[in-house]
Design a protein that fits this description.
With 199 residues, this protein is mainly α. 48% of the residues lie in helices and 6% in strands.
């Protein structure tokens, strides 16, 4: 917290910008609680709402600075030097080799997809021009959401606390293990169930 490296990470994670745009944004790009910038690579006009969490990191950045992600002198970092800066910080933090600004851009896309954003909504934030790349994040997120929904249905349908008591005949067998379980569980029929009102 409070380090330039953390600020850089948060800017990338909360905007999903390419490194070429992330190193340029500063107070001159902020208007009405949004980051307004033209993507350098594609020319896409971006208007990204500034979340309260990100504002907590940039609010103390110098108003006269060139960019939020800056050198100690206040000058903006170059795109290539920024990649090396992030990779070095990631290595010091014990993150996997090859960690880069692009990895945080991908993480931003994944987070948006997992929050239920459509591919078009994500593209409006990140400036992607090829929907196929973004749809991949959406498909992966949808798989997780579908898996969660499936397990939730299973839990609701087969909740052992909601299942009716087992019939008396269960356990009437030569299987000693089943007989033992039947005795230990004290299974009762529906007629003897505690769920029936007493007469």
């Amino acid at each position: 917290m409070g380090t330039p490296e953390r600020l850089a990470m948060e800017v990338l994670l909360h905007t999903g910008l390419r490194r070429s745009d992330a190193v340029r944004i500063g107070w001159k790009h902020v208007a009405g609680g949004r980051i307004e910038i033209t993507a350098q690579k594609t020319g896409a006009e971006l208007s990204i709402p500034i979340r309260a969490e990100l504002m907590g990191y940039i609010k103390n950045c110098p108003k006269e600075g060139d960019a939020f992600i800056a050198k100690t002198s206040g000058a903006a970092r170059s795109e290539k030097a920024f990649s090396a800066y992030i990779s070095e910080a990631a290595a010091k933090a014990g993150l996997p080799e090859g960690s880069s600004p692009h990895g945080l851009r991908k993480a931003a896309c994944r987070r948006l997809a997992e929050a239920g954003c459509s591919a078009r909504q994500i593209m409006a934030i990140t400036g992607h021009t090829d929907i196929r790349e973004v749809e991949r994040y959406c498909r992966e997120a949808e798989k997780k959401l579908l898996a969660d929904a499936a397990m939730a249905k299973l839990d609701d349908r087969f909740d052992v606390h909601k299942l009716p008591n087992q019939p008396d005949k269960l356990g009437n067998t030569d299987d000693n293990a089943l007989n033992f379980l039947a005795e230990k569980s004290a299974w009762r029929s529906r007629q003897d169930s505690n769920l029936r009102p007493s007469a």
